[in-house]
Amino acid sequence: QVQLVESGGDSVQAGGSLRLSCVASGYWYSGFLGWFRQAPGKEREGVAGIYTRGGIRYYYDDSVKGRFTISQDNANHTVYLQMNSLKPEDAAMYYCAAATVTSGWARPSDYKYWGQGNQVTVSS
């Protein structure tokens, strides 16, 4: 069992930055770590992912490339999402998630473990 606890959500103006953190506890294993977001009335979507088995690979949705950065601190079992140049359309509830394997890093249904979510609000 893996528990994920997120922090860092806040309200910012457009153009601002935030860093989300997700601390994992319990039985920690390597695999996929993802950040997802869900705005009201929309489906949950993958924002960024990191694959930590046999090396490290990074994945980003096109909408955040060049603005968001996913990273991890293995020693502290923490994954981060640095979000720069935030836009109003980035506003959503953000979740971190963990999976052993996925058929596609951005498929929410492949992730077994989820954090509680952190609200990000971006005002124009």
As a percent range, the share of strand residues is: over 45%
- The overall pLDDT, averaged over residues, is 93
Helix content: under 10%
The radius of gyration is 13 Å
Strand count, sense and barrel status of the largest sheet are: 7 strands, mixed
The low-pLDDT segments are: none
* Beta strand count: 11
Structural class: mainly beta
Short description:
The protein has strands at residues 2-7, 11-13, 18-26, 32-38, 45-51, 57-60, 68-73, 78-83, 92-99, 113-114, 118-123.
Question: Can you tell me about this structure?
Answer:
The chain is mainly β and 124 residues long. Helix content is 0%, strand content 52%. The chain is built from no helices and eleven strands. The strands form two sheets. Strands 2, 4, 5, 6, 9, 10 and 11 form a seven-stranded mixed β-sheet that branches. The protein is globular. The protein starts with a strand and ends with a strand.
Descriptive terms for the model:
single chain, seven-stranded mixed beta sheet, four-stranded antiparallel beta sheet, mainly beta, 124 residues
Write the topology of this structure.
Layout: E1 2-7, E2 11-13, E3 18-26, E4 32-38, E5 45-51, E6 57-60, E7 68-73, E8 78-83, E9 92-99, E10 113-114, E11 118-123
Parallel strand pairs: 2-11
Antiparallel strand pairs: 1-3, 3-8, 4-5, 4-9, 5-6, 7-8, 9-10, 9-11
